[in-house]
Design goal:
alpha+beta, Aminopeptidase
Length: 141
């Protein structure tokens, strides 16, 4: 992901999450956060998805993944997740973690298919809706 991708990223973010991220957050992630790794998925020149993770010590923390609604149901989230996990392996993490909304069954199914297991929950984690987060991990990576 590059700064010139952010208009398209924010458009997908708006269509994908109850409270979309702010431009400044992505700008920070791309220019100042040495722990962050963000990537985009293109169809030709059209940005149709993106994902990101942080490498924190020996842990890969998946921070976001989204596909434009017109492109969902084509295993593209699976492609992005595989790519992130492959990239993270370069840093030799011992596990991967993530939080996912309790109501996001499609994402939970994807994560289960990639070996993630539910290890806990974070009550009222999502402040926009007070929804709980399911905490999932996968080890070894």
């Amino acid at each position: 992901m590059q700064l010139n991708d952010l208009d398209a990223v924010l458009a997908i973010d708006l269509l994908s999450f109850p409270t979309p991220a702010k431009l400044k957050m992505y700008q920070y992630e791309l220019t100042q956060n040495a722990l962050s790794h963000y990537q985009v998925l293109l169809d030709g020149d059209v940005l149709i998805g993106y994902s990101g993770f942080w490498m924190i010590a020996d842990e890969c923390h998946i921070s976001t993944i989204a596909i434009h609604p017109d492109w969902r149901g084509r295993k593209l989230g699976d492609q992005l997740l595989r790519y992130m996990l492959d990239r993270a392996r370069e840093y030799k993490p011992i596990l991967a973690t993530l939080e996912v909304r309790r109501s996001n069954i499609a994402a939970q199914t994807l994560y289960h298919q990639h070996g993630f297991a539910i290890v806990g929950e974070r009550r009222r984690y999502y402040k926009d809706t007070n929804e709980d987060a399911i905490l999932m991990t996968r080890e070894p990576l």
